[in-house]
Amino acid sequence: MSAPPAAPGRAARRPPPLGGFSVTVLGLEVRRVLRNRRTVLMTMVLPVFFYWLFGVTQRYDNTSVGHGNVSAFVMVSMALYGGVLATTSGGAMVSIERALGWSRQLRVTPLAPAAYIVIKMLTALVLGAASVAAVYLVGLLTGKAHMAVSTWVATGVIVWLGSLVFAAFGLFMGYLLPTENVMQVLGFVLVLLAFAAGLFIPLSQYSAGLRTFAKFTPLYGLNQLVHAPLLGGGVDVAWLANAAAWLAVFAAGAMWRFRVDTRRV
Amino acid sequence: MTARAEAISLRGVHKHFGQVRAVRGVDAAISPGEIAALLGPNGAGKTTTIDMILGLSQPTAGSVSVYQMAPRQAVSCGLVSAVMQNGGLLRDLTVAETLRYAASLFTRSAPVPEVLERAGITAIAGRLVGKCSGVEQQRLRFAMALLPDPELLILDEPTTGMDVEGRRGFWTAIRQDAGRGRTVLFATHYLEEADAYADRIILMRHGEIVADGTASQIKALAAGRTVRATLDEPDEGALRAIPGADRVEVRGDTVLIHASDSDAVARHLLTETAARDLEITPRGIEEAFLALTADRAGTEGRE
Q1: B104 chain-A contacts, CB cut-off 8 A
Q2: Which residue among A247, B63, B171, B204 is buried most deeply as judged by most CB within 10 Å?
Q3: Which of B33, B76, B149 sits opposite A110 (nearest CB)?
Q4: Which of B83, B101, B137 to mutate to test the interface with A (most CBs of A within 10 A)?
Q5: Helix A220-231 / helix A70-100 crossing angle, nearest 10 deg
Q6: Has domain B8-79+150-219 been given CATH number 3.40.50.300?
Q7: CATH numeric code, B225-282
Q8: Model pLDDT for residues B73-109, shown as the tens digit of each residue
Q9: Boundaries of CATH 3.40.50.300 in chain B?
Q10: How do residues A69-89 score in pLDDT, each as one tens digit?
Q11: Which residues pair with B283 in a beta bridge?
């Protein structure tokens, strides 16, 4: 029993670089997400369907808005909706993984908690990109949405990067709600937030009181920002402030819960 | 001690959860190459102790080191790995993908096919984890723990919920692996498991170590042995006076002497009396376990 261990020498053992982050893990995470039918349905099929319903089948392609048409406007809205759904569910994966006990399993590997969060955020961004791409692709193929090529690119990139705010939201909620069915709750919350921010119904249809309220909800800033290149009316500082403030709130909340969580697990 | 570092060193370790004192002053050292069992009933503080050895929680007082490092650092370096009681798996990855995932986290890792083979799950490598049986999932956890080729392997109640056959197969795999010189610490509340697979048993009760030794030492410690002999017209008082005798029973010409030092009693009987047909039997580990972990005082501590 006193034979020396066959394992590599103690001195040769080192913690992994980047806290264990690697492209291998990211690739497997993305593959996992795309294997989940409910996630694909919710983040890719649903926004495309909504766009089809509200932006393609209606006679919107003749009505121009800013530098494009209404169909393009709706497409950008639905891409944002899909993007935030995707990044939220990406972030909320921590909830499922905690409920399953996978987080605990990972704690006995060299994976650093911060690297785990980075992996979740990047997975959320990949999922967000896939969702935005799906809506834009259908927009392109149906030929109803009209705007300049640069506007397609600009709105797409803003939607994608802006949806990162909701990756932080998903993460925060994922730590807050310890349940495997967290996305059923968050999916509903996002619908409410989308209505509140005028993403499904233009704010001009709301009463003055509701319009004021809308300006303080989390999707308001993003909804305004993503349409800015299309409408061409410039950028209001209040929009940026709204997005930045909510990002700060969600990120701080996620950090707080994350700290509590890593102390305990 | 000298140059040889202990694999695990626990010094004056306490862990409190609010009012609950789960671990109350544990001192223990596990040397490299030992196969030790942490034995105790539910609530003895086994899992709490293991969590501290793995760096999952911090002791309220005292210190824990693994190969003279902080536990978390030892885990980061791949020196220690564990099969945990309540560690979950991702249902939407296959067995092989799960291992590739875990393997990528270590600086050095054994090849996935090799680990699959050693855990006996090569045949189900392509199966989704969600479709695997409990025993198969436990073997996957074992395979994951083998990836860094750790010097210390910790298993927390690894066979809970397995049937007899599954349990035996699982231990065969672990036993084969331990033959390579790995240090193993496992928690269990199955007495037979501790008896059959460990070189050393650390018995815990209410957050304290109540006994520490080989299986036979543990048995002797709790209940000693029973010396049985045939003796014509036995004198109970004289028998009770034999050094080392704890309790004497006389049934006709048969005497039963429960002794902590059975050797001394046997020697006395054979040399000083006319006793014949001498028999010495150890008490079962089951009895030892019950005797040592019986609820003597108030109940404190919980797992």
Answers
A1: 20, 22, 24-25
A2: B204
A3: B76
A4: B101
A5: 150
A6: yes
A7: 3.30.70
A8: 999 999 999 998 767 899 889 999 999 999 999 988 9
A9: 8-79+150-219
A10: 899 999 999 999 999 999 999
A11: none
